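Support request, please re-run this one:
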Amino acid sequence: MTEALGLPFVQPFFGPSSGDFSRGVNFAVAGCTALADSFWAEEGIQIWLANTSLAAQLSWFKELLLPKFCHTSSDCKNFLENTLVVVGEIGGSDYKYALFQGKSFQSVLAIVPKVVKAISLTINELIKLGAKTLLVPGNLPMGCSPAYLTHFATSNQTFHDPETGCLNRINEIFRHHDELDRVRQQNPNINIVFADYYNAAMQLYHSPRKYGFTEGALTACCGCGGPYNYDETAFCGSEGCSTCKVPSLHVSWDGLHLTEAAYGLIADGLLRGSFTIPPLYAFCARAPFK
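Re-run finished. Output below.
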């Protein structure tokens, strides 16, 4: 998306960077959650990295980044009024931690409103700080990913969508997450754009060949074998794993992440298509889309 807007890649706040965040900054951390560590501790769920939740990222934004650009609340409001703030995509790791550590489908479905509330609180806090234009993504349909298809493998075909082969119950969780669109409706005076990652991606699973994915949508390009070329004990890059010759013919790269070709089509659907509400291009009419 930054390429389409004619911007350089957004630098990570943590990790190698020039320290110049005037063109944007990324607070994302691999495996981070929307819900706080304390919630997961009470649930008996182990998370990968501590103190990286959405609330922690908001604190970094307020306490470490904003002082670099503004020094009073008025200055910060003026600064944020002219800034596009992207809140997410987040929440997928919350569901993965719970599902992969034995939580039932119903108990994870009950977590969705808590995740949505955590994101909503963050959005409201950003609005109080002065943000006027926010992009809020939903989740990808992880029930179509080789990782989930392998972990929840079943011979009961009623669990699979007959057209796509994706896991219906898993996708139900990620589809419910898209209730984030309500945040937009509750803030009519703020430019909140809901990015429908779920349906932007589902078009690839419904018609993979139409989009050039002739090697299929459900098998990973890089993996260690199995029905979906995904092994939970040996990930892409491990000894004995192999990489397909043409990644762009696959939707999935390594079982959890998509290929550049798939991400590019999703981004195109968001920038030029009907998968943002309201249309993103309405706010970026002067952007050099190519």
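Residues 11-198+274-282 form one domain. The radius of gyration is 19 Å.
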